[in-house]
């Protein structure tokens, strides 16, 4: 793939080194910080209620599995610092996503986040090579190098985010309909520069969002009930894994931002177990070309999941879900399992 920073076998160690620092922060909170340590240093004490920091979404922000929420990462109050780190794996019939992310929350007001995504094509890469070559009536060897995937090709993306809570508090605003409202953005860099440009997109993009979250402490069954609604302004293809923007009718590149809704609901069954549902709409940009191949590659379905989250304690939570991601890169029915481990402080 020329000078692209791509590992065909998915074993590049650079993101693991970067995220080791992020994950180490969460593990430090989980393993090393005792109640005595918290008492000695209230700045890092987990002062908020359990589960009110959510988990870590696939973009690194505090939220659900696929959506950012208005909440700030970690359990820090307005005079404390908190944070989280997470590993997520999504197993699909033809693809696999490994995601490492983490965030720091400052005084329950500002959040800074980072995530690294690695989307593996597996044997589907070779099948895509054959489909592309067949469409053009040429051998695979005649294709541009940027469009020769082979088996175990991986799309990689780094995501840097920031979020600011504007108003409201999901805990203390129980006697008012006012939700907690935050605004944020994600800067995304896709490492597969040549391939992304070859399909008609661009490797860098920024999306913006506003999120409103409401927690009902005495909700159904006298347990927590939670709702979130998020609006994103984005041109990311499949969360940026296939780049940003696409092709105009004349074949030129166009940015093509759209407003996409997302929402999440969650209900606690016990004090530590929550179940819920998430929905996230995706932009529909044209890739490859205005032809049968381009139409197939461009088709995007909303992301959805049904999840169960177990909050073992304030420092560790485990989330499992059935993810319904639909069509990805011309391959339909990409639905499978999702598992995520989040460490918080």
Topology:
Blueprint: H1 14-32, H2 35-40, E1 55-56, E2 62-63, E3 81-91, E4 96-106, E5 110-122, H3 124-136, E6 153-167, E7 180-190, H4 193-198, E8 204-216, E9 225-234, E10 246-247, E11 253-254, E12 258-268, E13 273-280, H5 292-298, E14 303-313, E15 316-324, E16 335-344
Antiparallel strand pairs: 1-2, 3-4, 3-16, 4-5, 5-6, 6-7, 7-8, 8-9, 9-12, 10-11, 12-13, 13-14, 14-15, 15-16
Concise account of the structure shown:
The protein has about 350 residues and is mainly β.
Tell me what you see in this structure.
The protein is mainly beta. It is 15% helix and 41% strand. The protein has one domain (14-344): Porin (Beta Barrel). It has five helices and 16 strands. The longest helix is centred in the first third of the chain and has 19 residues, at 14-32. The chain is elongated and about 65 Å long. The chain starts with 13 loop residues before the first helix and ends with a strand. The relative contact order is 0.16.
Annotation keywords:
345 residues; Porin; mainly beta; 12-stranded antiparallel barrel; two-stranded antiparallel ribbon; 16 strands
Could you name the ranges where pLDDT drops below 50 across 5 or more consecutive residues? 1-40
Strand order of the largest sheet: 3-4-5-6-7-8-9-12-13-14-15-16
What name does CATH use for the topology? Porin
CATH class: Mainly Beta
Order of helices and strands: HHEEEEEHEEHEEEEEEHEEE
Anisotropy-based shape: elongated
Specify the helix fraction band. 10-25%
How many β-strands, per DSSP?
16
Give the biggest sheet: 12 strands, antiparallel, barrel
């Amino acid at each position: 793939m020329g000078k692209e920073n791509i590992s065909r076998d998915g074993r590049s160690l650079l993101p693991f080194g970067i995220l080791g620092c992020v994950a180490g922060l969460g593990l430090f909170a989980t393993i090393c910080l005792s109640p005595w340590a918290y008492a000695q240093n209230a700045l890092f004490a987990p002062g908020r209620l359990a589960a009110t920091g959510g988990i870590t979404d696939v973009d690194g922000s505090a939220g659900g599995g696929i959506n950012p929420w208005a909440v700030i990462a970690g359990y820090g109050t307005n005079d404390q610092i908190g944070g989280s780190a997470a590993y997520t794996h999504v197993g699909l019939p033809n693809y696999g996503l490994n995601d490492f992310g983490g965030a720091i929350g400052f005084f329950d007001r500002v959040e800074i986040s980072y995530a690294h995504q690695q989307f593996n094509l597996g044997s589907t890469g070779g099948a895509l090579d054959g489909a592309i070559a067949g469409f053009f009536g040429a051998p695979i060897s005649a294709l541009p190098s940027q469009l020769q995937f082979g088996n175990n090709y991986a799309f990689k993306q780094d995501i840097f985010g920031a979020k600011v809570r504007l108003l409201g508090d999901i805990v203390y605003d129980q006697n008012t309909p006012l939700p907690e409202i935050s605004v944020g953005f994600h800067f995304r860099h896709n490492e597969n520069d040549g391939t992304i440009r070859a399909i008609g997109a661009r490797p860098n993009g920024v999306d913006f969002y506003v999120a409103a979250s409401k927690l009902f402490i005495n909700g159904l069954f006298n347990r927590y009930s939670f709702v979130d609604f998020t609006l994103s302004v984005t041109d990311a293809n499949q969360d940026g894994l296939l780049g940003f923007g696409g092709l105009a009718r004349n074949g030129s590149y166009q940015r093509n931002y759209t407003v996409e809704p997302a929402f999440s609901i969650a209900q606690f069954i016990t004090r530590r177990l929550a179940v819920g549902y998430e929905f996230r709409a995706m932009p529909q940009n044209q890739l490859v070309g205005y032809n049968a191949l381009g139409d197939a590659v461009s088709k995007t379905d909303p992301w959805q999941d049904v999840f169960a989250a177990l909050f073992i304690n304030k420092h560790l939570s485990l989330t499992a879900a059935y993810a319904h991601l639909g069509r990805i890169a011309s391959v339909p029915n990409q639905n499978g399992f999702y598992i995520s481990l989040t460490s918080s402080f």
